Amino acid sequence: MHELDLDTAPGEDAAATQTSDTTSRRSMLRRVAVTAAAAGAASVAVAGRPALAADPDDLSLLIVNDHVTRTGARYGGALAPTAFNVETGPSDANNDAVLNTVLAAGGTAFLGVANSAGPQQVGVVGWSRKANGTGVVGFTGPTGGYGGEFFGGVAEVRLRPGGAAPITLTNAHQIGELYEDETGVLWICVAAGSPGSWREIAGPTTAGAFHAIAPQRVYDSRPDRKLVPGTDRVISVANSLAGVADVVPAGATAVSATITVTETEGATGGFVSIRPGDTPDNGTSSINWWSVGQTFATTVIVGVNATRQLVALPGPSAAHLIIDVTGYYR
Questions:
Q1: Are residues 189 and 278 in the same domain?
Q2: Peptide bond just before 119 cis, omega within 30 deg
Q3: CA angle (82, 22, 59) in 5-degree steps
């Protein structure tokens, strides 16, 4: 761990150092410790410098690359940053674009740039050994702004899966915590406690976000034949009968659909069970009738298999079936 004295900038008289903390941000900066993880894998830039009399937000930028100070630049007021190189090699142009264009308009508190020669390529590392501590904190001033902003070529943020589901834990948690368990399910804490109250947001077994669509008819048995009692009818909901492709796109896990039975048979009635393709019948019912020649409709939400299929099973009487998809989950 390499401690940096942020009260005195390199090459500057210590007498010029401001001794009082004027803001909580500057107080935090004076206690920053920078570490290069995995044998110098990360390059980190930190800031913390006495303010100019005319500009209380003036900041000094210190670049640390593999434990070596490369160069510095001052931001604040009308002062322009000096030119500096944070990484040698083919990424120089990219670094210049980031440092001179993106950051030139204002003060910069922290900046991390990964060294491409390092094994981890980590720009900024935050680590807290204190119980319930926080590795990295981002916040803004009283005028508002973004506490954090992320962009990535692969993804903006990656959450690393943890252990068991948080509802099975016994330690304390706070409102707003996000937790991904070992099965890839994402949770959010909605009430503090031990373990607190948690809601499941998403995961491999959840339906996902709902996409409402203009209703599309995907199946109608009337031009063909009625459903046969006791016999499965496999139905694709991928495309509409009007020729619209991917009404329910690949990757969908469930659909919302209006199902209609018409021209029903059986003096004592009957039913149709709708279930996801490739699943066994569990003796359920999705819609019922009680006499001959009836027409009924209802809305169901039901899962689909990987090929976007449903299975319809009638009993003990026959009827025609119509399916109109109104939305899907993915």
A1: no
A2: no
A3: 5
- 234 with 308, same domain: the answer is yes
**What pTM was estimated for this model as a whole?**
0.64
- Per the domain annotation, does 237 fall within a domain? yes
User: How high is the pLDDT of residue 111?
Assistant: 65
Confidence (pLDDT) at 99? 57
Mean pLDDT, the chain, whole residue set: 75
Q: What is the pLDDT of residues 211-221, one digit of tens each?
A: 999 999 999 99
Domain range for 283: 210-329
pLDDT digits (tens, 9 = 90+) for 303-312: 999 999 999 9
Whether residue 304 sits in one domain with residue 194: no
